[in-house]
Amino acid sequence: MVAIPSTYKAYVYKQYGAPADVLQIQEDVPQRPLQPSEVELECAVYGEGTVFPVKIARDAKVNALQKAIFDDQRYHERFSFPSSALTLYLARKNGAWLKDDRSVKNFLQAGKSAEYEEEMRPSWKLDDEELFGDDFEPGDKEIHILVELPSQQRGVEEATSHDSAMVFDFAMAFDFAMAFGFRLMALGD
Question: Its domain of life (predicted)?
């Protein structure tokens, strides 16, 4: 049980008409348990630096994993590409999985790494020996899948930030002109 702050208690009482003391908050909300036929893979996204788990059937195809990642990260809300446009790589080098340590965020934000080029083809099955095999058991602080977003989406993000910078520069120039009394010429003058 977690202690409930008094400001929250007052809010709950005001909103719902019941004292918040009757609420019980659990710190660990139980998730759906893994089935023997499922595995939880840790995924990380190049460029973004995010790391998240995805539960999937051990014998699923890579295209099902693409769809699970696409849905989990809600890419359809931010971008306009299909789940099949995600490129997935095994986060394994010389038989060892990428460690999820303090430096992994910077590593991911730097973009695609030449160290992890083992691309996973959509028609392959996760339990194939060249991917995870039948007896795969994830370890602690391991990343298993590296996700690369389509290149045109990265370009859109870069263009958006570039456009924002141009608008900011224009606003700064306008403020400067107004502050020092410069006359701005309208188009056609």
Answer: Eukaryota
Place of tokens 């995600």: 86
pLDDT tens profile 37-60: 999 999 999 999 999 999 999 999
Please write down the HEC assignment for all residues of the chain: CCCCCHHHHHHHHHHHCCCHHHCCCCCCCCCCCCCCCEEEEEEEECCCCCEEEEEEECCCEHHHHHHHHHHHCCHHHHCCCCHHHCEEEECEECCEEEECCCCHHHHHHCCCCCCCCCEECCCCECCCCCCCCCCCCCCCCEECEEEECCHHHHHHHHHHHHHHHHHHHHHHHHHHHHHCCCCCCCCCC
Neighbour count for residue 20 (Cβ, 10 Å): 17
Domains and CATH numbers, the chain: 1-30 (no CATH), 38-155 (3.10.20.90)
The half-sphere exposure of 7 on its side-chain side, counting CA atoms within 13 A, is 0
